[in-house]
Amino acid sequence: MSRLVFVLPLIALAVLVAAFGRGLTHDPKILPSMLIDKPLPQFARPGIQPGAPGFATADFRGEPKLLNVWASWCVSCKVEHPVLMQLKADGVPIYGLAWKDRAEDAQATLTQSGNPFARTAMDFEGRTAIDLGVTGAPETFVVDKHGRVRYKQIGPITPDVWEETLKPLMAKLRSEA
Amino acid sequence: MSGGPSTTPASAGTVPPPDRRSERSGRRSVQFLTKLRVAAGRRLVGRLAALSLALLAAPAHAVLPDEELADPRLEARARHLSQELRCLVCQNQDIDSSDAPLARDLRLLVRERLAKGDSDSDARAYIVARYGNFVLLKPPVEGATLALWYGPAAFVLLGGVGAWAMLRRRRAIPEAAPLTPAELARVDTLLATDEHGRA
Question: Domain count of chain A?
Fold first, then answer.
């Protein structure tokens, strides 16, 4: 009993230190997505130009795709842009959702620096982004061939992120039934 | 406001005091003390003003007029609900006081849900379904948050039990046996004599 009186507070302290240590090293900006292993929420967004095709939930079927949330005002998206261009050249289908962006600004960015997207859609009101649980741009959802979200990348896709995380995941999703 | 000269004694000019120098320094110190008092008074007024302003100040909020609902009851509910929801951009602020565009979108969404007839908990659940419990500034009591809610009480309890156990052990030291008649007699003789053995 008397041994316990001394040991218990030490154990409690160790647990506290471990909990606080974990909290301090964890980036609070990276929130776990609520959508992992769930189907994409229902949406249908218009394209940039009137008449241009946007995309909808139903378009995320058949093969694994990336859904990239970006904006012309987003600086990190410019960092990510060359990587996306390379992915396009490698044949990775990326659907781009322009978040809280004006059509002319989004179009100007794509015209100027190149369009990495198989399709682009507008979310000026940010309502679809809220349904997706987006907290900032860029965010990229990896969607499998059944339209389920399997992973969310928060922040730009760097070459490392692609090589180490997203590329193996996409390969795995392609091989899934 | 100048308070110094008025305190000079009226008699100072008519009856020359024995020592002029001490009179002058005395007058100067009176002026100095008066100035100090005035300054202290001003400081107090300033502090009271600052305090009353701080008490009057309404909490900052970022709700723009175009966001507000026409129905004041719904608007009050929306305000209350917004104060419980975390802005996901500037994470330690509620969406009611945040100027972030996403916070505005969420405020509008909350109002839209309430206007559609959602209860407060429906509207809250709608946002939690998209952003998780992190969006709630006050985390719900559930498995993962038990330590958060009851941890402090558990630590107080643990410390209390420990302290109680230690105190009890300290008290358990046996009391000394009473003196025997022979010892008492010796004490009496010791007390009756001084350090040299004299009675």
Answer: 1
A131: domain CATH number?
3.40.30.10
| Structural domain of A103 | 31-175
With tokens 């939930």, the residue in question is A57
Confirm or reject contact between A76 and chain B (CB < 8 A): no
Spatial distance between the Cα atoms of B21 and B25, rounded to a whole number of angstroms: 6
From residue A91, give the alpha-carbon distance in Å to each of A52, A84, A161, A171, B167: 22, 11, 17, 13, 74
CATH number at B65-135: 1.10.8.640
- Judge whether A38 and A148 are in contact, CB under 8 Å: yes
With CB atoms and an 8 Å threshold, state whether A1 touches B102.
no
Each residue's pLDDT, cut to its tens digit, for chain B (199 residues) gives 444 444 444 444 444 444 445 445 556 666 766 776 777 777 777 777 777 776 666 555 678 878 888 889 999 999 999 999 999 888 889 999 999 999 999 999 999 999 999 999 999 999 999 999 989 999 888 888 898 899 899 989 988 998 998 888 887 777 778 889 999 999 988 888 877 767 6
Q: What is the pTM of this model?
A: 0.70
Chain A contact set for B131 (CB, 8 A): 31, 34, 133, 135
| Distance, CA of B128 to CA of B91 (rounded, Å) | 15
From chain A, pick out residues whose CB is under 8 angstroms from the CB of B109: 127, 130
ipTM over 0.85: no
Amino acid at A130: I
A4 to chain B: closest CA residue: B162
Asked if B102 lies within 8 A of A29 by C-beta distance, the reply is: no
Q: Considering the domain boundaries, does residue A163 fall inside one?
A: yes
Residue A69 lies in a domain: yes
